[in-house]
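In response to a reviewer's request, we include the raw inputs and outputs for one of the modeled complexes. The two entities were modeled together in a single run.
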Amino acid sequence: MASVAVAQPAKKRSPIVEFISDQTKWTPYLFVAPFFITFAIFTLYPMLRAVVMGFQESLGYSGKWNWVGLANYVEVFTNDPRIVTAFRNFIYYTLGSLATQLPCAFFLALLLTSPSLRAMGLWRTLFFIPAVLPGVTMGVVGLWFFSKTHGFANALVVAFGGERIDWGGFTYYIMPQLLTIAFWQWMGYHAVFLIAGMSGIGTEVIEAAIMDGATAWQRARYIILPLLKPIFAYISITAAAGSLMNFDIPYVLFDAGGGPRGQGWFFMTHIRDMAFVQFRMGYATAIGWLVFFIAVVITVLQFRLYNFRLGEQEVA
Amino acid sequence: MTTPTVMRPVTSKYGLGIRSRVRPFHLRSILVTALTMILALIFIWPFLCMVGWTFNQIDVVMNPLLPIPAKFSMQFYQLVFSEKYQMHRYALNSILVAVATMMLSTFTTTLAGYAFAKLRFPGRDLLFSIIIGIMLLPTTTMLVPQFVVMKELGLVNKYWGLILPSVGGGAFGIFMMRQFMLSIPTEMLEAARMDGASEFDLFFRIVVPNASAGIGVIATLSLRDSWNALLWPQIIISDVNKRLLMPAIVTLNQMQVADVYALPVVRAAAILAALVPLALYAYSQRYFISTLAGAIKG
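The model returned the following structure tokens for the whole complex.
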């Protein structure tokens, strides 16, 4: 596309002049440049720095760093009980969330796709709302709910003739509290994904089952449930990735600390505490790498299990 | 229609509906709707109760199981905006950061999404694969080195430290924007190009008006994420006057031993803080859910 305005014959022009004088050639690069520039400065460069920082320890905020070799990684893997706690909490929180939320989400999705349901949009919206609220709000609601003196949970316990429970004081109440809040946050959110999956099931399949005399229960159990397998896999993986990065709720619930007996640490709250309370930036970076690689493993699993369909989307 | 029945088209949108005729007040319809209503009520009941609690007078005992204050009072909400707690100032700080981030990042996200969807250039597919790779990277774990770099760049304790990292738009946003842009007819762009429109004309006159729904979603998500964010603003901003709302609420929550009013103010502020994403969601809810669902349907 040689420009007509230029008097020179097109052949003699250098490729650079050619490139600059043709708007259609350079604008695409200009359009995608902001992302790559900010990514390079604010993510890629820090990641490269992190490779070095993992082998160093910071001296407070002074900006000075000491080489410590593999000491940080040795500590991460052999000598940090909080890592063990954080990993255990990550596993319990993931499995607990799925075990409590998925059956309810499935039932809710069946209900919310029922043709007999009126004002369907209203209900879908209502159950989805907690997922868009700030984590801080959900944490504050959780603290109120489990307050020893004037909380909802204890009022229920007392109403049923029990004694007030000190929810914040014992290690074995940590998970129930977190899972209750997580249930509020994510159950309706998961239901939305299941609803999307259900609308992908052809009506002929269901129709055929009705013709064959399948009851509503049989249709749900033997047709819908198996066909939703990829959606369940997707939800499980994203839930695992989400609990790995869990920060807001434990941070609010345990006052930026580790909860009763330090049994409430999660990876991100631990990293924040190490870096910005104990000023061990190098060590916090080493933990960051551990979490990074756990997350990468989860992503690889996601590809394997779910058979991620980016290729098809590109055609669409 | 002669019969008092309502025709319901059996579309995939309504899921597994087979019965195409549902009477308006069919028993089954009443039962299903009533069941859903009860479940929804149980689901949001504790929220309502806490909202009720924030309207209760501080020295009056109220039943936490009911959303009705024993003695109605606005005192906590007055305290939220009082000289002592000044939550409105932190909220304004949050709005400033959220709006600036949204305007800049939505613009760049739209540009990049358009380039990847509609422009042909050498290296496009490679760059787009890189974007997808970045989308899957758990970059949150790189928080500490990111903070160290921000400190070296002199961006700690400055709003630019919150805004700049998002200025290029997110990988996920660009990915979504590209999907939106694919539906814009290429012929329309070609025709305008033939008429001598510059690439910038094309973008502002044709692409932006045709992608307004997608741009709205990206802008809403960006606003919500900035507003809800806790961790990054918490570590970047340490100056009390510059603090954003979420870190301010959490910090006040940690002072409840020394201050009787801290806890009620935290609760009232947390409820008010939830109104912003709620309003955003109400504004764009049909896009919200379909976007999320679309992300996995492939």
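As requested, we also summarize the result in words. Chain A has a mean pLDDT of 85. The longest strand of chain A covers residues 56-58.
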